[in-house]
Amino acid sequence: TYEYQGPEPADSDGDHIPNWWEVQQDLTQVRQLRGSSDSDWMTDLEEYIADTNPNDSGSLLPPVGTLRQEGGVHLWLSDSSSNRIYQAFFTTNLTGATPLWIPIEPQRSGSGGDLLISTTNTSAMTLYRLEVSLP
Questions:
Q1: Are the C-beta atoms of 51 and 82 separated by less than 8 Å?
Q2: Residue 61, C-beta contacts closer than 8 angstroms, at least 6 positions apart
Q3: End position of a domain, from candidates 60, 76, 109
Q4: Three-state SS at 7
Q5: pLDDT by residue (tens digit) across 3-48?
Q6: Which one, 4, 21, 62, 119, has the greatest CB density within 10 A?
Q7: What is the pLDDT of residue 34?
Q8: Better-predicted residue by pLDDT, 4 or 94
């Protein structure tokens, strides 16, 4: 008879959330791909990726502030996670089936504090978005 004695599988229920995080957050380890433990608009998987608290509906990504100055715009995110990667994008046109989102600077690692991203785009009508991902 053989017995497996290796490390515990990283994701035993196949929901793409590591077991250690589900245990740390006191979540069920039963597959819930679209589940939201705090009944907010983010799934538990999205909360894991964003590094927010899946048991607190008030735990969200901090808002992104903008400061327009001569020569460009500065975007800042307060309380970035030092365990995540951030990428800012801009577009000047939301028409069409798929807007073209253009990356601003390379991806940036969070610092655990404020994160400042600068762009030289000075178009009058510019929209920004921020993407957070796992390292």
A1: no
A2: 50, 52, 77, 130, 132
A3: 60
A4: coil
A5: 555 565 588 888 888 889 999 999 876 666 678 888 888 999 999 9
A6: 119
A7: 75
A8: 94
What is the chain's length? Answer: 135
Backbone Cα Rg of the chain: 19
Asked if residues 25 and 19 have their Cβ atoms less than 8 Å apart, the reply is no
Question: Measured at the alpha carbon of residue 35, what is the angle toward residues 33 and 39, in degrees to the nearest 5?
Answer: 160
Given 18, 33, 60, the domain boundary residue is 60
Q: Could you give the CA distance from residue 29 to residue 27 in angstroms, rounded to a whole number?
A: 6
Residue 8: predicted pLDDT? 56
Pair (80, 126) in one structural domain: yes
C-alpha 79/C-alpha 64 separation (Å) is 10
Q: Based on the domain organization, do 18 and 39 belong to the same domain?
A: yes
Q: Domain containing 122: what range?
A: 64-133
Q: What's the total number of domains in the chain?
A: 2
Residues 53 and 96 in one domain: no
User: In this structure, are 34 and 84 located in the same domain?
Assistant: no
Tokens 């993407």 belong to 131
Q: Is the domain of 88 the same as that of 110?
A: yes
Q: What is the pTM of this model?
A: 0.80
